[in-house]
Amino acid sequence: MKATKTKAVAVPERKRGSGVKFVYDLLRDEILDLALQPGSPIDEVQLAERFQMSRTPIREALVRLAGEGLIDTLPNRSTMVANLDFLNMSPFFDALTLMYRVTTQLAARNRRPEDLEVIRARQGEFAAAVKAQDALAMIATNAAFHAAIAEAGRNPYFNSLFSRLLDEGRRFLRLYYQSYDDRLPQQFVDEHEAMVAAIIARDTALADRLGKAHAEQIVQQIQKLMIGKERLDISL
Amino acid sequence: MKATKTKAVAVPERKRGSGVKFVYDLLRDEILDLALQPGSPIDEVQLAERFQMSRTPIREALVRLAGEGLIDTLPNRSTMVANLDFLNMSPFFDALTLMYRVTTQLAARNRRPEDLEVIRARQGEFAAAVKAQDALAMIATNAAFHAAIAEAGRNPYFNSLFSRLLDEGRRFLRLYYQSYDDRLPQQFVDEHEAMVAAIIARDTALADRLGKAHAEQIVQQIQKLMIGKERLDISL
DNA sequence: TGCATATTATTTGTCGACAAGAACCCGACG
DNA sequence: CGTCGGGTTCTTGTCGACAAATAATATGCA
Predict the structure, then answer these.
(1) CA nearest B142: which of B171, B115, B122?
(2) CA distance A123 to A206
(3) Strand, coil or helix: A80
(4) B-chain residue closest to A16, CA distance
(5) Do residues B212 and B101 make contact, with C-beta atoms less than 8 angstroms apart?
(6) What is the pLDDT confidence band of residue A210, given thresholds at 50, 70 and 90?
């Protein structure tokens, strides 16, 4: 028996239906922040005693996570955190770019005043994270910022796909931003400001261009980081 | 106690992990074919005795269906088949059109010989259903045809969204094709043929145009059917 | 009779336990 | 020395039962 790497949680008493959501949210964050490494096994009984509840709600949370592709389940065998697929990332980049464009464009068309409040708040949180040099918060608030834009576009189908892509992106970014580069984040803040301005001005064409540029820029960054990482591995 | 509208299923003996998949597949088909009407309540114990198994696997299947948005769950209260949202369908149409375009275009670019076999087979099944005037089979095989094209595009993110949209579309079509119009299906067969030809020729631009045209045509058809239905309701 | 409240009933959420597969260990045999 | 087989252990899938939360019903009072 090896010691659990994750801290035990104090759950003195909980309400009837909150258990699943609690486990789901926490596991999801741990997976997206790479606190749970891709490929690492997930044991139901271990989680059960960690959260001090039965296996049933644990199981339901795992089923949900599996539905979103965050964990993989081998029948009658182990279940583990879904691996990141480095070999063919172009489908991911294609989908991410298209969703950046579409959601930003739709936001420029369908936004309402209350949406702008939320978007501005998320942008503020992201800027604060950049200022504080908190890589983990930067990644999370960046995803939240774009999710808020998508929300203003008011297309639940695009939103769900985009959320999934942003989640996947969180894991990639987390992987390479162990040591962060502080030049890039400031550029992101500026690009975000431009996107917000286009959305406020209801300039759909400009929003589309900015979304595309932002996506291509982030894709280039990830690819550059990946190549750099691989070089490092080879040089050893 | 009212009698169950759905037939009891004979399940003499089953293997260890097959129960969930069985229930999931069957319920999913019944929902998509409107055998289970939108808004109708789903009782766990009733399903349990219908499938002659415990509530646990039933519950897991329901959780999965809820994850795909096919059923809605009120906490601590009833769970029911998800309603069709007629009021704002434009997000649905927007997403469907975009996915038609993207998947067809990607299929023209990334297709392999073995993909064409599958696509041709699906197209044949659709044509057979049209010939047999089997509305239910037409709807299902049409969705399978487009899913096969999307598969040839090799982008799992687009595929999952497109599958969800096609499922939703199955429910709408099933609603209005109780009495089918035999002019439309033949047009679909022809348009499908043109799409296959463009995919074989690797003509991405043409594939995009055909995908867009096909989508807009089907959207127009659904809208026309909806208006006709509403007229009928008002005229009573 | 009408309304507020208490009681019952139904359905879901959670639990502990058992059994089926699969991995693991270990010895025997070629 | 490697491979096959049997037993063991460990994890998951399933079960029946209980408890909580809500809906439905009944009861009491003005």
Answers:
(1) B122
(2) 19
(3) strand
(4) B76
(5) yes
(6) very high
pLDDT for res A231? 56
Contact B211, B103 (CB under 8 A): yes
B107/B153 Cα distance (integer angstroms): 4
Q: Indicate the pTM of the whole model.
A: 0.88
Pairing between strand A41-42 and B71-73?
Answer: unpaired
**Cα dist. B168→A120, A179, B29, B69 in Å?**
34, 44, 12, 10
Helix (H, G, I), strand (E, B) or coil at A56: helix
Amino acid at B100: Y
**Residues of chain A with pLDDT > 90: what percent?**
69
Number of neighbours of residue B80 by Cβ within 10 angstroms: 18
User: Do residues B51 and B23 make contact, with C-beta atoms less than 8 angstroms apart?
Assistant: yes
Which of B59, B157, B164 faces A95 most closely, judged by CB atoms? Answer: B157
Query: What distance in Å separates the CA atoms of residue A159 and residue B161, rounded to the nearest whole number?
Result: 10
Q: Check if the beta carbon of residue B56 is closer than 8 Å to that of residue B106.
A: no
Nearest to A155 among B75, B91, B102 (CB): B91
Strand partners, A80: A41, A72
Mutate to test the interface with B, among A16, A64, A68, A161 (most CBs of B within 10 A): A161
